[in-house]
Every structure is written in C-alpha cells, then in structure tokens.
Amino acid sequence: MSRRWPRVSRGEGIAAVIGVLALAGCLLLGLHAPRTVLLSYLFAWLFWLAPALGSVGLLLVHALTGGDWGFALRPALLAASRRLPLMALLLLPVLIGAAVLFPWADPQAADPNLAHQRWWLNLPFFLVRAVVVFALWLWLAHGIRRRLATPAAGRFAAGGLILYTLTVSVAAIDWVASLVPRWHSTTLGILVGTAQMLAAAGLAVWISVTRPDSGSVLWTSRRLNDLGSILMVLVLAWGYLAFMDYLTVWIADLPSETVWYLPRVKSAWRWLGAFLVLFHLALPFAVLLSRQAKQRVAWLAGVALWLFVAQIGYVAWLVLPGLRAHALAWSDPLAWIGLGGLWWLGYGARRRAALELGP
Amino acid sequence: MNRLHEQGWLARFEDAGALLMAVRELRGRGYTQLEAYTPYPVEGLAQALGPMRNRIPLLVLLGGLAGGFGTLLLEWYASVIDYPINVGGRPNASWPAFIPAALEMTILFAAVFGIVGMFFANGLPRLHHPLFDVPCFEAASRDGFFVWLRADDPCFDPALAHDDLARLAPLAIDRVGP
C-alpha cells in the first residue's frame, strides 16, 4: 500500500476549489440563519456519506457472496470507501451545531414526550455515538481492504455486516430520525443502509462502465447484465422497505408514527414523494427489466448515474420536510456542491491506483 | 408442403468444436433455420445460431401485468362495490393495503405464464417429432453433436444443402421427415 499522496486531476482540482467556495458561501449564509444552513449541510453530508459508506457495505457483501460483479466494481468501490475519513472530518460542523440543529437538543423544548427519551437523545451521548460509529466504520473499511484477497475475508465480512447494519441503524436514528424526536420506525436503519448501497452501486457502475481507463476489464454483455441486476435488486429492496414503512404507518395510524409522514404527504413535499415513486422506483425498474437495456453500456450507465443523482431527492425527503418554513433554501445546493467538490478530490487517482493493483 | 419446418437434413459431428465451426460455416452461407442438439451446453453455440425469436419475456410481462392489475381490480370490487365494510374509518378503497397482494399476484402470474408459455413454445402437448425417427438421434443426449438444417429455410434446396453439409465433413447425414 503506497502512502503517497494521490495525484489530482485538473477537473478534481477545479471541483474542490468550487466546493470550498460553496462551503464559504454556506458559512456566510449560516451567520444569518444557522439552523436552515445546518439542515442543508446535514442533507448534503448524508448524501455524500452514502457512496462512501455504501461502498464498504458492498465490499463486505461481495467478500461474503463472491461474484463477478464485485470484481468489476472493486476499484470504484475501494476508491469510494477511502472517502470515509473525509466524511468523518466533515461531520464536525454537524456535531458542533447539534445544539442548534436538533430539536431535542433545545433545553427549553416543551415536548413532554422528550422527557423519557433524554437518556438517548442528549448531547454528550450523541457525540460519543458519532465518534464510536465512525471509528467502527473506519475499522470496517480498513479491515476489509486489508483482507480482500485473503481467506479471512469471508469471516470478517460476516461479522462486519452485522456490525455494519447495527451502526447504520444507530446513525440513521441519530442523524435522520432524531430530527423528529417523537417519531419511531423499525425500518429506518436498514432502509437508509439500502439507499446508501444503492447510491454506492449507482456511482460505481456509472464510473466503472464509462471511464475509458477501465479498459483492463472486459465489459461483456453478461457482466453488464450482472451489474444491471445488482442495481435492480437494490432498487427493489429500497422500494419494498420504503413502501412497507409507509404501509405499516398508514394502517396503524398512530400519532407517534404519522408525525413523520404528515409533513411529507400533506404538504407540497408530496410531489417529491410522487417523484421518488415514479422516477426512483418505477422508471429504473422498467428500464432494468429489459435485458437489451442492461446489456448496453449507454443505457446501463445512464440508469446507474440517474439512480445516484435521484438519491438527492431521497435524502432530501428524509431530512428536509417539516423543519423549516420555506421548503428549499439557497444553502441546499451550495452545501451539496461544497461537499461534493471535496468528495471528488483524489477519487479518480485512488480508483486508478486500485485498477492497477488488479483483482 | 406446410410440413417443411419438420423436414431437412440432420448432420452429426465429431465434437463440440466441429459442430460450432459447421454452424458458423452454414450461417456464413446464408442459412438461418438451423437447430443444434448437444449433450451439454456448448458455449458460443447460441450466439453462432443467430438471433432467436423468443416471445416468453413478453408473455411473462403480460402475465405480471394481468396478475397485478387484475388483483387490484378484484380488491377494489370486493371492498368498494360487493361488500364494503368500515374498518376503523379508513376509506373503502385502501390502495396502500391493496398493493402487497397485488405484488404477490404479479409475481405468481408472471411465473405461471412464463412456465406454461415455455411448455407450449416447446410444443409440449405433442409427444413425437420426425427427428426421433432418425437413427442414432438419441445420441444427442450422450455423445452426439447434431445440426439440423430445416427445409423451411429460404436458401434450402435438398441437393445443394446436402452438398453443403457434406463439405463440412460430418460423421453422418440423415434425412429428417418423409
């Protein structure tokens, strides 16, 4: 493993500069309306966490199950998993601003339901959880990278996936569910985890299939078909879990569960929900159903990139509704561009290095 | 005359490689109505035989759509028109609750249509075929590699086709059909 600083392409350098400028813009906006901007930042951070963390999940799944798809995607997944330390660093603004951002952190919060949630929802414990969860993720990412070609990979992945599911659940409860403290959902952790794997797979498939420098991998129609099927499985799993969560809430009709869905389906946000059902589930499903589409590089890459981009909508759906007076803020795209610019810095070089290493 | 698709020449080859070469050669000469029989799947043979018309995917899609929308219709009819019951004040047409059953029926109907359709596409109700009259054809399930040049091929001429096959050095050439 080389410790050299990865070479950065010109495009990535420009992206990073734009990113820093966008984050500076966020900071300026944040002086004016800290809560709004922090929420935007959380949204953008959760979006860019997905490809990094989801890649670790996919690497673990592949170490356990094997299969050609994993070898084809491995360079892209390895490169994305190396973004985790950066994401840990970029979580700092959320941790610093937690007292402003999260409704439960407000000591004057008048919600009587909060009293018996204080043992979990308090600032010191919240910070400890964030540190522990990230330490475990970094350890998982490092561990699977080190063991990839060894026989120990399977056992590490089996235990690692259990740990992965538990830590993603804790993260989803802390950084998504706790925005609406009264709400609870038994599906949210695994749902967020699946969405993250979907984002990671979408990005990895798009990058791997379209970059000319991945010529060392032969893109036979069979291999493309496998990648399309992986995307299909993740789209279906995500759609199934999301719908089941909604269905149980709809049937039970209890205040502690509907509190999360009401601002989402009884306001203009419902159009985002309709968009997700149509364009994040129905359309990719219909395209991926066709073998001809899956086996064509242009179509497969298009669907993969689309699924990755559509995750913006899903993360927005998870985080934004109901927490501020105006639906969207200028800081949303700024924070997204800012974190994205930093995320790309060095990604291509990491991927090329992993490509040269071979499977 | 309309039995042409059950006639033609059946040629037996030494091994999978020879069969594959023969099929490519025949395709090169413009024959399209070729069928091959081997004791095990031969890689590249399906591609060498050329694009095959296969309506099963369409049938599966139609089955899935019929199952899914049919179930939604049934659920709507049962709970809105035929026997409306007030369940905790929910609307009679409870679409979210209708979806799981519709999903299951989509999968069931797609699978059943696919399997039954495959049986019919394989000509299942029929139990005999002129190919079975060819001596040694049962070797196709042991060590025989056969290619069948069908008589309904636009380029098919009995004498010419026989010559074309003979030039590929098969182990044997037999007539299929009367």
TrEMBL record, chain A:
Leader sequence residues: none
Keyword list, A-Z: Membrane, Transmembrane, Transmembrane helix
TM annotation in the entry: 12-33, 45-65, 86-105, 125-144, 156-176, 188-209, 230-251, 271-290, 297-319, 325-345
Origin: domain of life: Bacteria
Membrane recorded as keyword: yes
Protein's name in the database: Quinol:cytochrome c oxidoreductase quinone-binding subunit 2
Native source organism of the sequence: Frateuria flava
Organism taxonomic ancestry: Bacteria, Pseudomonadati, Pseudomonadota, Gammaproteobacteria, Lysobacterales
Automatic annotation (TrEMBL), chain B:
Coiled-coil residue spans: none
TM ranges: 58-78, 98-121
The organism's place on the tree of life at top rank: Bacteria
Keywords associated with the record: Membrane, Transmembrane, Transmembrane helix
Database matches in Pfam families: ActD
Name of the protein in question: DUF3341 domain-containing protein
Source organism of this protein record: Frateuria flava
Lineage of the species this protein comes from: Bacteria, Pseudomonadati, Pseudomonadota, Gammaproteobacteria, Lysobacterales
